[in-house]
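Hey L., structure's done. Input below.
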Amino acid sequence: MDIAKALIDYGFHPPTVYFPLIVKSALMIEPTETESKETLDLFIAALREIAENAKTDPEEFKKAPQLPVVSRPDEARAARNPILRWEKK
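Output:
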């Protein structure tokens, strides 16, 4: 989950997490055939940098993503009490 969240800060949509179910904490990364080699290379570079950050500064790594307004919502609470309308505050 932490790797998927960190990818958001690199401009990538996070992949599906917890699938396939036979591999614990797996990421399902399925680039489409329309992705360019350059995009795939950037994705690989992001994964390598994320892995290095996880090793060198695990506490900071677990704070990702840091760029979005909402970084780590309480997903269980959001599922139980969804807010279905946006209101300007």
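DSSP finds four helices and two strands in the chain. Residues 2-69 form a domain with the Aspartate Aminotransferase, domain 1 fold (CATH 3.90.1150.10).

-- N.
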